TrEMBL record:
GO terms for molecular function: heme binding; iron ion binding; monooxygenase activity; oxidoreductase activity, acting on paired donors, with incorporation or reduction of molecular oxygen. The chain crosses the membrane at residues 13-31. Its cofactor is heme. Heme binds at C448. The keyword Oxidoreductase applies. This is (wild Malaysian banana) hypothetical protein. Belongs to the cytochrome P450 family. InterPro entries: Cyt_P450, Cyt_P450_CS, Cyt_P450_E_grp-I, Cyt_P450_sf.
Length: 507
């Protein structure tokens, strides 16, 4: 018997007055719970119940740009019952993240982040308030400060040297995507936990698979957050079980790490805030360091933040940069000439040398413009009524900034669809939150605090790959033939692995 026939048969068995009462109550509750609509914001037509969800597609950043080209850089969509303002221009993004930064500084409710990040007690998904201020203070001052990032330089250099060695030992054909994932996960493991934990979770590959599962689950779309009546679908399609399993596995993994650190600290007595401390050491000592007593769950949530922010986004940027440079061999040659001139023949590429590599840094900026790791920045939520480009945005409205569309906006960029690093040579445009046409890490209060950490790894890894090897596509493939399609997820990487041929350079 179909669901429709089953429902009808049950209704037939009820008194007509009771059916009417249930129907009227449902309608009343539906309208009573309906959020206040932003005033006169352009909006496409929507379907009942699901709103504009059917228009998102498998790559929402592309679908939203297409809609914004019809309805404007500030448009209103309904994701189920949730009003969502989508921003697709630098000017509107500046209003959200600078002019009215405080008004838009909170985060919307998320069942995913609540279940994975211990009630959203991390810096990324935590709602604006005292807890978020304390967590961000610990992250900015003690985990991701420039001094702390510099202290992890030996780890980055050692792991990048191991990467170069693995490529030399491999056959000429290299799965560079797989090797970059290994590099970034090994670095974050050592920085967060003090070692790679190769003996746990099935070895190093098991730990990397666990990290990958976390970012994959974070890219899921729980219907219950937008259409509560359809929340049962999350159970039916296995999402609830998958989230629960991931949360349990990570909790057990991180708890084991923290207990290990506590035993080590107890044995060695109290450790000071020295350069030898990893993230777990610092968080466990946070009360002594900064007078802030973080709960056990809050510490675990922050560590998960460091994993998601430190692995997937960094790996994605390096992968896209290599893909674009191989696709444009003359630009790759220019970057290699610059790097090899600075380092010299047979020299050692040290991290401080990257500061003088203007074209390499321009190529990375261009990669971030075309391929921001998070094309849709983590959503914000208005804490009060505010004006955006003249439109009234009520309190509790969700705001999504399409960094991918802004990076390709012809209003801001010449040749917006072309990989052209030269646009960044000789100018001061940067990605640190002051130039709103380039915001891969966000800006304002909710900007990513880990920019320096991510870029230190990205620059060093890319410089070494280009210095130590000449790269080309296998089987004589031309750059135009390369598959540059995107995979869906919270961080958008290449859909197909980047397979390249590595050859020793003629230095």
């Amino acid at each position: 018997m179909s669901f429709h026939h089953l429902l009808v048969s049950h209704l037939d068995a009820l008194p007509l007055s009771l059916v009417a009462l249930v129907a009227l109550s449902s309608i009343f509750l539906l309208f009573r719970a309906r959020p206040k609509k932003p005033s006169h914001v352009p909006s496409p037509w929507r379907l009942p119940l699901i709103g504009n969800l059917h228009q998102l597609g498998s790559l929402p950043h592309r679908s939203l740009r297409s809609l914004s080209q019809k309805h404007g850089p500030v448009m209103l969509l309904w994701f189920g019952r949730v009003p969502t303002v989508v921003v697709s221009s630098a000017a509107a993004a500046q209003e959200v993240m600078k002019t009215h930064d405080l008004a838009f500084a909170s985060r919307p409710d998320s069942s995913l982040s609540d279940r994975l990040f211990y009630g959203s007690q991390d810096v990324g998904f935590c709602k604006y308030g005292e807890l978020w201020r304390q967590v961000r203070r610990v992250c900015v001052l003690h985990l991701l400060s420039l001094r702390r990032v510099h202290s992890f330089r030996p780890i980055r250099e050692e792991e990048v040297a191991l990467l170069v060695g693995r490529i030399r030992a491999a056959s000429s054909r290299v799965n560079i995507s797989e090797m970059i994932v290994s590099l970034t996960s090994d670095i974050i493991s050592r920085v967060a936990f003090g070692r790679k934990h190769v003996e746990e979770e099935g070895g190093g590959s098991g730990v990397r698979a666990l990290f990958s599962e976390l970012t994959t689950v974070l890219g899921s779309f729980p219907l219950r957050d937008f259409v509560p009546l359809l929340g049962w679908i999350d159970r039916l399609n296995g999402l609830d079980a998958r989230v629960r399993k991931t949360a349990i596995k990570f909790d057990a993994f991180i708890e084991t790490i923290l207990e290990e650190h506590e035993r080590k600290t107890h044995t060695n007595h109290a450790r000071d805030d020295s350069s030898t401390m990893d993230f777990s050491d610092i968080l466990l000592a946070s009360e002594a360091v900064d007078g802030i007593a973080l709960s056990r769950d809050c510490i675990k949530a922050i560590i998960l933040d460091m994993i998601t922010g430190g692995i997937d986004t960094t790996y994605t940027t390096i992968e896209w940069a290599m893909a674009e440079l191989v696709k444009h061999p003359r630009k790759m040659e220019r970057a290699q000439e610059e790097i090899r001139k600075i380092v010299g023949s047979g020299g050692e590429l040290r991290e401080e040398m990257v500061e003088g590599m203007e074209y390499l840094r321009a190529a990375i900026k261009e990669t971030l413009r075309l391929h921001p790791a998070l094309p849709l920045l983590v959503p914000r939520e208005s804490m009060e009524d505010a004006r955006l480009q003249g439109y009234l945005i009520p309190k509790c409205t969700r705001v999504v900034i399409n960094a991918w569309a802004i990076g390709r906006d012809p209003v801001s960029w010449e040749k917006p669809e072309e990989f052209w690093p030269e646009r960044f040579v000789g100018n001061s445009i940067d990605f640190k939150g002051q130039d709103f046409q380039l915001i891969p890490f966000g800006a304002g209060r909710r900007g990513c605090p880990g920019v320096a950490f991510a870029m230190a790894t990205t620059e060093l890894a890319l410089a070494n790959l280009l210095y130590h090897f000449d790269w080309q596509l296998p089987d004589g493939m031309a750059g135009e033939e390369m598959d540059m399609s995107e995979a869906s997820g919270i961080a958008v990487h290449k859909k197909s692995s980047l397979i390249l041929v590595a050859k020793p350079p003629n230095l």
